[in-house]
Amino acid sequence: DAGVIQSPRHEVTEMGQEVTLRCKPISGHDYLFWYRQTMMRGLELLIYFNNNVPIDDSGMPEDRFSAKMPNASFSTLKIQPSEPRDSAVYFCASSSRQGRTNEKLFFGSGTQLSVL
Amino acid sequence: DAKTTQPPSMDCAEGRAANLPCNHSTISGNEYVYWYRQIHSQGPQYIIHGLKNNETNEMASLIITEDRKSSTLILPHATLRDTAVYYCIVRVFTGNQFYFGTGTSLTVIP
User: Which of A34, B38, B57, B105 has the most C-beta neighbours closer than 10 Å?
Assistant: First the structure.
């Protein structure tokens, strides 16, 4: 398996522009998570999905952020309009519960977002 | 989920054992202890987890105290590639969220 795949690897944009981050979870995983990492706040959980349904979006900072999971193999995190304070590394992770005790999160390589 | 406390940084000589402590004094009976690490510019990587008993795998050992209020991750023979930030997390097995704290930045010194 190729693991969790995120794109793009790096994104540089100007303030006010729309940004879309993409994630392909590991095949068969039924949970998908979006995290954001900054030096000041560390790793923050933004939102997670179970079977394509958003379960908890309490970590989404504001209405400028939205996330979708149209099918089991694809999710997007959109920021519109983007602001310089959104600059961070955004990670996508997936996992499979299936009653196992050794549930593990598998992370993608992240998207480094810079908003100028 | 219970809060964890870790030292912000540690050094370890290459080839020696690295012992990373974690305090989780408010842990509940059904909460597991997980360890992840993050090598610079990569996504966090699972290391090990446990509930009550000590655990060992090919990467590390996890020692959990009898009262479960603290644990230690042991890397038996640290290498330069083990330089990373190590996160201790406690979570309920049926819970869905992994909350990462600030972790311990481990530097393995040649």
Answer: A34
